[in-house]
Amino acid sequence: MKEFKTVKMKTLTMKKCSLWKKLGVAIAIPMMLNLQSCEDSFLDVVPDNVATIDQAFKLRNEAEKYLFTCYAYMPRNGSLIHNPAMLAGDEMWIPDQRQALTIYSLDIAMGNQRVSNPYFNAWDGYYDGGGPGDGYNLFDGIRHCNIFIENLSDASKVPDIQPSERERWIAEAKFLKAYYHFYLMRMYGPIPVMRENIPVDAPSEVLDVSRDNWNESIAYLVELCDEAIAILPPSITDINSELGRITRPIALGLKTRILLTDASPLFNGNSDLAGLVNKDGTQLFDTDYDASKWKLAADAALTAIEASENAGHSLYEFPGSGFTLTDTTTQKLSIRNAVSERWNSEVIWGNTVSRTSEIQLHAMAPLTIEHSHNNAHKIMSPTLKIAQQFYTKNGVPIDEDTTLDFSDILELREAGASEKNNIRQGYTTSILNYDREPRFYADLGFDGSIWYKYDSGSDDTKFHIEGKYNDYAGSNTAFFFNMTGYYVKKLVNWNQSFGESSASYRDYAWPELRLADLYLMYAEALNEVQGPTPEVFEYLDRVRDRAGLDGVQESWANFSSNPNKPNSKEGLRAIIHQERNIEMAFEGSRFWDIRRWKEASREFNEPIRGWNVFGEDEASYYQVRTVFQQRFVSPRDYFWPLAENTLLQNSNLVQNLGW
């Protein structure tokens, strides 16, 4: 299905104000809430034009609408505003949020998170943590999934549905229930797991739920995934109406992500979290390291890979077009389009609830003097650290390459004919922008860089960025300006075009899971189990080959100052982490990866830097400018705080450490 409908809700009267306990109790708070008097409050809980929940499950058509309501809570991860991983870390920066956009995740990156009205509060559904209009908090989504599973599991309801379809819909709801729990658990740590809904008239001792042990919660989410996996189809056959529905490879991918997160250092053997206990003394984290968790993650990843490949998924390669293009341009389109080309072979899970025109608008830069900043905001600004993390053209880190010197990035160089497909010939820019791997040029724009689009035709070098202060892509506008001198090309579909006074962006469903992601998850988990093995290198090298690089062992042996680095588990771990940060750049992966690797106290305590975007010439522009000095407090900042009001409403909830 191309888009999911949100079912509007009717009312259920509540007799007592005391029942308004949050789980922050989403038990009693559905999708849209209209508080009236304390004696006669109303909750929307059933589909529009249907008087009761029972009637919502009398016919297949109404039941399907309710299923789509469960889907409607899927986080809008393709949104700069609604995906915290875009701006809450160190990967990108934007102008002061009150100037261009109000994005509360940037407050988190700036160290402004708080316990009173927390920013990006997905627990209660406030400050964009609950999706558009703060109307989609995830505990509500879980509640609707439970309602759906309970009612559709009753064979006496929805008599006009086929048994196989009934099973499939229940499996989809179980998947969504697992996903919504996992989304909250990455953010808050242990949460109350809602295996079943609690009646709104239950006594306070039942409504006041506690947080569940992390390991037990993970086991339950895996159980939900396994139940869904056994039923879900291997692929979507009705592409006209069902694209976006959950398949077996998607569920296997979520299971992999859950288990990989559970095996990672933040959650596996982390003594820093020993002090997080419920009020009855229940330990919420088991702090003993369990090596077997990596084996579970590796096994799940391999199963997910095999299921995905059997369903026809493969790493995307640009198939060519009617234009004559250089190998360089074709390589870059293979990299970019793996993310932004609609329903390409690599996308296992496309989130149709989360569309991408808006994020493309925020990423795109004007490419001629005629292009308006209002139609290409260019505010998504990758940091200098991220630009430096990409490999050299030899496939190794810039500080390890024995044949290239990047020690003085203030050194400038003029682009020659051999560089013209990446940098405008005759243009002068930093040496940091030369001799880099294809993903650097595919994913990033910068002053002087080529930006190939469909309307370039066979002219590979038709468009390029000019980003100094007074240039057409410069930071000389009141609101929409770039902060670092780097631009995000990766997320903009190559069919983007400008009109006389407008711009067109080709929408695509946000890719929640790509095959390359699965390959890297498998390589990471398998290295932790076995250390460097041919199979680990095989899956790493599959990703590198699509990126136009030689294999890890060959690259390090020939070009690295540390040629033995891939030969140890620790060395290969560092390589895998960097490979993942590069391949998954700007897709919302780095923020969660840095946290689960327990590296945030280092990475998020460094300054945000970029070029001096207010410079008007080469000498002034190519100076390193500190945009912001980040501050991350460990272990406090690894998890969101629970709102003070939530703790007051539910006396059995405990606050996260440090808050």
UniProtKB/TrEMBL annotation:
One Pfam family in the UniProt entry: SusD_RagB
Subcellular location: Cell outer membrane
The UniProt record lists the keyword Signal: yes
InterPro entries: SusD-like_N (IPR033985), SusD_RagB_dom (IPR012944), TPR-like_helical_dom_sf (IPR011990)
Annotated GO CC locations: cell outer membrane
Protein's UniProt keywords contain tRNA processing: no
Similarity annotation: Belongs to the SusD family.
Protein name as annotated: Putative outer membrane starch-binding protein
Keyword annotations from UniProtKB, A to Z: Cell outer membrane, Membrane, Signal
Domain RagB/SusD positions: 346-659
Segments forming domain SusD-like N-terminal: 138-258
